[in-house]
Every structure is written in C-alpha cells, then in structure tokens.
Predict the 3D structure of the following.
Amino acid sequence: MNVLHFVGAFFGDSAHWHGYDGIPTRLLEHLRYSLIALGVAAAVGLPAGLLTGHTGRGGNVLAFIATAARALPSFGLLVLMFILFGFGLVPVMIPLVVLAVPPILVTTYEAMRSVDPSPVDAARGMGMSEARILFQVELPVALPVVLGGLRTAAVQIVSTATIAAYVSLGGLGRYIMDGLYQHDYEKVVGGATLVAALALVTLALFWAAGRLTVSPGVRRRG
Amino acid sequence: MIRIDGVTKRYPDGTVAVDRLSLDIPDGAITVFVGPSGCGKTTTLRMINRMVEPSEGRILIDGEDSRRQPVNTLRRSMGYVIQNAGLFQHRTIVDNIATVPRLLGWSKEKARSRARELMERVGLDGSLAKRYPYQLSGGQQQRVGVARALAADPPVLLMDEPFSAVDPVVRKGLQDELLRIQAELGKTIVFVTHDIDEAVKLGTMVAVMRTGGRLAQYAPPAELLSDPADAFVEDFLGADRGIRRLSFFPSAELELLTGPVAAAGTGRTAARDTGDAPYLLVTDADGRPLGWAEPGLPTDGPVDPGRLLPCGRPFVAGQDSLRAALDCAVLSPTGWAVAVDGSGRVAGVVSQQAIGEAIRAAHAGGRSDGADTGASAKVAG
C-alpha cells in the first residue's frame, strides 16, 4: 500500500476515463476555471503593472493592495463569497483572481521599473511616443520577468482551483474532496497527481512561451 | 542656426539649473558645452529637443520657436546620442540603427539598407549587423549610438557626454571619428562634456558654464586658451593652457635644417660642414630617420649607423602643430626635433631654441588674427 500503488490503481481503472466524473471532463472543467481566473487576473494586473511601472507613479498604493490581497486566505474568501453570491462560478473566481493578481501586478511593476533608463531616455529623445516606448522598448526587456509573474500566478491558480469542488463545482478537486469523504485514498492521490501534473505542464508552457517571445539579446541576461 | 534666447530652467524646489542663457549655435559646426557637474550643460542640451521645457525664454531653430512643432516631430529631426549609448538590447544592431527611419515610416528594407550604410560610415564591420548589443564592446556600442542618431540624416546632432564611459584610447578614436564624420557631413553638432581637453579638441565654439547655470565664456577654443574671460575659466582650463594653446599654431613656419642629416654609409664631411648641430641625424637609404650619431666621431669617412641615440617620435612638418614639434624636441635626447614629410622621410631637424622663437613669433601674431580665424586655424596633433 504505497502512493504509487494508488496512482496506478486510479489511472488503471477504466471507469475513471469516461462519463461526467471521468478524467477528461474534470480536466477540462479545471482548465476552464484556471483560464478564466488567469485571464481576469491578467486583465487587471498587467495593465495596472505596466502603467505604474512605466510612469513610476503609484508604486506604494500598488504594494499596499498586493500585501492586503496576499493576506486574504483563499478558502475563507471562497466560503464568504459562497454565502454572498450562492452557487455558481463567481464565488470561485473571486478568490482565485485575488490570489493571482498580486504576483502579476507586483512582478510586472518591478520588471518595468528595473528596465535600464538610458534606452528609454534615448527612445524619448529620438521622438518615440510613450506607448511605443512602453511596448517596444520597455516591455521586450521586462518580458522574461513579466512572464515569470504570470507563471507564478498560473501555477497558484491551477493548484488552488481545487477548492471549486468545495462549493459543489467540478474540476480536479472533485476527486480529492469526494475521495476524502468516501475514504477512497486512491481517488485522493489520483486527483492530487493530476493537479501536480497540470501545474508542471503549465510551467512547461510558460517556458516555451519565453523561448518564443523573448529576444535573444535579452534572454542572455536571464 | 539654433538660438538660445534668455533661457532659464527653474525646478519646483527653487533650484536654478540654467540661468538666463543666451547664445547662438552656428550651423555645420561643433558647439561644445563644458563645465563642472551641476553647471546646467546637460539641461541646456535637453532643452533643445524639449526633453526639458524651459521655465523662461525660448529656443529658436532656424528662426522658429521650437514649441511651434509637435515635440516628437522636433525630436525626430535631431539625432540624440547619450552616455552608454542607450541601445535597445532586444534589437539587433541593424534594427537599433534603423529606429528613427522606421518611426518616420520608411519600409523595413529601406531602413535596414540605410542602417548598413551608416555602420560603414561610423567604422563598424558589416558582420556585426545581426549581433545584439551585449555582444559589442563599449566603444562599438557608442559607434552604434552615433549611427542610430545619424540614420534619418537629421541636420542637428545632440550628444550628451557620449564618450565619457569608454577608456581613453577608445575615446580618442571616437573623437577622431566624430571630427571625420563632421568634416564629411557638416552636421550642426551640440556636444556636452565635462572634459575640457575634449571640448578644446572637438569644439568649433566652446561654451564654458559655471555652477548655477551661467555662461562663463563662449569662444573658439584658441581664444579660450589665449584669453580666458575670468579666473574661473582660467582655472577650469588647467595649468598647462599655454602648452595646449600651441596645438593651434602650425609648424609650417619652423625653419628646418637639412645640414646635419646624412644617410648611413655616405660620406659625412659635407654634412658636418653645413650643419651647426652638435649631433648628426643618420637616415636609411630611403631618408627615414635611424637615430642621432654622437659627437666626437671622426669627421671624415662613411657614417656608421652602429652607435646611435634614438631620435624618438618625429613630427610631420607643416601638418603637426607647434605643440607636437616642441614635444618631439623635449623628448629627444639631443634636444633637437626631427621633422618628416607625409611619407616619413626626414624633412630636416630643428632645435628647441628655434621652436621657442617660433612660439614667441606665433604668440605675437596669434593674438591679432585669433579673433577672426578662430578655431578654423586648429592644427592636427
């Protein structure tokens, strides 16, 4: 009776591969929650981080918001939102977004602030517009770190999205939650393994995105 | 022409960076702003392309107020070079140089072919085109910075301490290159430095500024060295301004003696007869200097190249300045300087004493014509 035995048994059981409680369904549900949460968090965090980083204003406010958001426990927030909004996707998305915004926001801000000021000065002196300076001078150099923030957020979302099962939604957390109730450890371990694997795949995807989008002139500096 | 008209820059905290500055920057020449840190020289430069907006006064470009046109249009019409080059590390060298043409809407192909043309002009090997900035040395990066500023062929070039972060040997190369480019292209260059030697070397006109953002003196470098306006300028020019000023006097007036010169292996009697130098300069068969023969040797028979004193670095007659000639004489073990022609053959020898007389003569004449010929009389070396 070891963990590997549980893993083998879980994935070897053909009943786990189809139906509304099958692995493909749960995986797609989990991906859906994660992508929506990451999308919303990026839509909030990236523009705010890029703008404050570019102008250099609002850094203190930003640090305060990020610290406050980090102090909120995801699980407590989930329960609170469930009480407020009832059953549905919204109470799950709010804690996930609150969890993911700080790493995106703070890292993007820091990445933009750490860009060497002299190319920016040169660009401005050559008559580049502020938008061009942001997107064509600062962002390409800040990109590896910005991607790092998104990656951290994505991995946290993927692992934390399991809490959706607590409020009767699907996702990979279903296996863990149900397994715990039913004392079915095979299910618990199987679900946890899937979550871990998905987190690793997420890391790999971000690594590939970095290789594709970061200029070799920047990448060397790591 | 760029006219700075009563310009003051005052910051909200009350600091005055530039104080009622007025001067005209001539077209097609290098105007250098020089002074200690905090004298407002960089602020002045940055007000020309409106990176800093003046609090009072105005800047006229060819008679038109610089605020009349959109700020980015103004900036695109002026090349901008800064310390450490400020290259875009995510772009290749060729794309860095092509930046402003691309901003002006040129096609990628046209902008890149222009960029390659400029790489050649600033002395960069074409094989570097596809490299990234981190793969280049500091001096090469600065050349890219100059090429990038020249890419859209702007009439004006603003250069903010562009060479101060590279080592002295590389800096000298970059300065010579800038003078060459300026001679070829005739740009209006505004150059900021804290190095008075750089200012004297590069400037057609030099504006010396003092702390508090006030203009101390605005003059061609030769005039600056001969007639510093006050104790501040004199002090800033340093202790050896008399020697440095000799750079502006040509060596063409020096009377060269050819008597005490003889080729190795030839008879020495004739040379001895005409020369009044205690030493004899021995040359090879092509007339290039080998060294000085010591006195007290037999007065006849062939010249023996065996025991010679080194003759040091010669100066090029007519082309080098009196400063170079004096330097040769000072370094020569015999106290005599060796003059060569453009191809390195001996043109004659001249004593320290004769150079001293030429310096006195030049000083006597230089003061009167220094004012009108100005820095155009600057001599190489």
Remarks:
- Residues 367-377 of chain B have pLDDT under 50 and may be disordered.
